[in-house]
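Hello again,

I reread your note about wanting to compare the complex against the isolated chains. To keep things tidy I'm splitting this into two emails, and this first one only covers the full assembly. Below are the input lines as submitted, including protein chains and any nucleic acid or small-molecule components. They are followed by the predicted structure of everything together. The single-chain runs will come separately.
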Amino acid sequence: MRLSLSLLNLFAGMMLLAIPNLTRREILFAVPVPRGFRDTDAARRAVATFRMVVALTTALCVSALLLVPDEMLNAAAALVPLLLVGATGISFYQQNRKLAPAAVQHTRPYEAEISEAPDRLPGYWPMAFVPVLLFGAAALYLNANWDQIPERFPVHWGATGEPDRWAGRSFKGVYGPLLFGGILSTWFTLMLFATWFGSRRTRMRSVMFGGMMAIHLMLALLFALLGVNVLLRLPVWAVALAPMTVILPLIIVMVRKMSEAGEPMDPTPNECWKAGIFYYNPNDAALFVEKREGFGYTFNFANRWVWGLLAGIAGVIASTRMVLP
Amino acid sequence: MTPPRIRLDPASPVPAVRQIVDSLRVLLVEGQLAPGTPLPSVRRLAMELGVHFNTVAEAYRLLASEGWLELAHGKAAVVMPRSVPPAPDASWAEEFRDRLRGLAAQLRSKGIPAEQIAAELRSVAEGISR
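Full-complex prediction:
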C-alpha cells in the first residue's frame, strides 16, 4: 500500500509538471501572452522555476511516504496531496505575477446568429439520465439479495488499505452510497445543462459537453459499483482505480479535441480575471466562459445563478453526513 | 438558408449598444431580416456577444422606437413591416456629413484614395434596396 501511495503521488506530481503545456499556446500561467512568447527567455525561466518547485515537492512527498513509520502513514497520506497542490498553487501564482507585465489583450469580434432557432443539445443528451437506471438497478439488486449482505461490512479504508469505518445492514448502511451517488448525479446533471445553455455557442462547448457527460457517467458507475460492492466484494483498490481507466483517456481525448477545435480565444477582458483563474464580469451575460488555464469552462462569478450552482456543491458535500454510513 | 449574423468588436471605441443597433439596422434595411422574423432572445444574444442583458434590451428598444421591431413582454422581438418614410428636410445632411467626414478621414489617413472611398460609398448606398 505504501508503494502504491508513493506511485500515485509520483504520478500526480508528473501530471502537475505538465500544467504549462495543458493549455493554449497564447496562455502561460493564466497570463495571455503574445504569439511566440513561449520561446523567450522569460517564459522558459518561468516554466523551469515552476517545474523545479513541483519536482522538489514531489520528491519530498514521495520520500516522506516511503520513509515515515507505519503509525504516521495515514496522516502523511492525507497531508501529502495538500502539500503537493499547495506548493503547485503558490508557484503557479508566483509565475502568474511575474509574467503579468507581459500580458496582452487578445481580441476578436464576437459573432451571433440572428435567428430564433432553439439551442439544440447534442443528440446523446438523454444519456444524462442513465445514472437513474444504474442506481435503480443497483438498488433492486441489493434489495433482492438483502439476506446475503453481511451484518457488518467496511465502508471506509485508511491509507494502509485497512478498513477504518464499518456499517451495519441497515437502510443507510446499504443504500447510502447509492443515495449520495443520486444526489451528486442530480447536481451534475444540472451543471451539464447549465453549462450548455449558459455559455456561448462554440465548437469548444460541444467538446466540453461530451467530456462532462463522460465524467458524469463515470461517477454514476463508480457509486453504483460502490453500492453493490457489499455483495460483489471486489478489492477496494480495483474500485478506487476504476475511474482512472476513464479519466486518463478522457483527458487525452479532450486535450486533442480542444486543440483540434482551433477556435481563437474567447476575448474576455483581462481585468475581469482575478489571479488568472477566477472570472468576474458583471457585463457578460454568460454563466460559463472558456478557462484561461487548462481546457474547459469556468464560472462567471458575477452571475447570481452561478452562486446557486455553487450552493448546490455545498449541499452535495453537506449531504454526505446525512446519507453516507 | 444560413441565418444572418452580426458582429460586436469588444475592442472598438464604439459603444456595444451602438454596434448592435447599427449591425441589426443594416440587416433590416437590406431586407435580410424580413417582416415577421423573430429575433433571438435578449439573454441568448447577450451571451453570444459577451455583453450584459440590458445592452441588448436597450438595442432592441432603440430599434423598436425607430419602428423596426415589435416588442412584447415574454415574447421574442419581431421584425415589423416598415415602409420607407418620406425624406426629412435637409437638416439630416449635416449630421450625416459629420459622421461621414470622420470615417473618410480615417480611411484617407490609411492612404485610401478619395475616389475609392466615394466608389465604395456609392456601392453601399445603392446596394441597400430599401
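For quick reference: The longest strand of chain B covers residues 5-8.

B.
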